[in-house]
Amino acid sequence: MKALYDLPAPAKLNLFLHVTGRRADGYHLLQSVFMLIDWCDTLNLEKRSDGRLTREDLTTPLPEDDLVLRAAKALQAFAAVPEGAHIGIAKRVPAQAGMGGGSSDAATCLLALNRLWGLDLPLSKLEQIGLALGADVPFFLRGHNAWVEGIGEQITPIDVAPGRFVVVKPAQGLDTRLIFAAPELQRATPAAIISGFAAHAGRDGGEIKSLYFGRNDLQPVAERLCPAVSDAIEWLGSQGLEARMTGSGSSVFAAMPHDVELADAPSGWQLRKCSNLAIHPLAGWAV
Description:
- The chain has helices at residues 67-78, 101-116, 123-133, 137-142, 176-181, 194-198, 219-225, 227-238, and strands spanning 3-22, 28-48, 53-57, 84-90, 146-150, 154-157, 164-169, 203-204, 207-208, 243-245, 252-255, 270-275.
- The chain is an alpha+beta fold.
- The two termini are 20 Å apart.
- Strands 1, 2, 3, 4, 5 and 6 form a 6-stranded mixed β-sheet that branches. It has a 4-stranded antiparallel β-sheet with strand order 10-11-7-12, with helices on one face.
- The chain is built from 8 helices and 12 strands.
- The longest helix has 16 residues, at 101-116.
């Protein structure tokens, strides 16, 4: 096997995000439901015999040492791989959006290189490498919608009802570090349980009830740091949709009980209608 093409790296939405505490080392303890959606980046990988790792940006220019190259370097070093790879990335999921685009790219890269280089490493080893790159990477490696706890390493697969969503990304992004450093951030939300979420899951009158479970504790800080978050929520509200922020980025989303016609978004915003995914397209590439 010398090449792998058109490999998807799907984004995720946080149906809710609670901050339940903070560890002595400063890491925040979270609870969330991560849901895969069909807004994807695409990766192409070709094996190199010279051991070099190179990257080609097929759409949006990326930082020189992005998560994909870091993932490739970490796997190459972990398994002492003499071969290299050329990685092409068609970036479509916006950055600083709270949608996990970079982490998803890294996960797809690890899964693909594990196969391209014939390593046959188990999923547990890839997760070990992935967690060192970012807290969301293990979720994308597992490939299932999930109840996520701790700092992102406690992952319990769950089912989420099929649905349609609209996602809006304002022109401005958000730096995760600034949100978690804010003194006014709510850090003591009482812990929820999966059965509490399950009571809201499924559909009620055509709407996905799980969207309205809990809240995003990061949203008030995010709205202060980036007023465009509030603008996007209000804009979707003017379309008759109830929106909230996803993750720690500036994107907001709303469930669509039916396919609605939306007004043109303000200049510089990205708008996309998405479906959720029951499973990652590369699920089962490592076990």
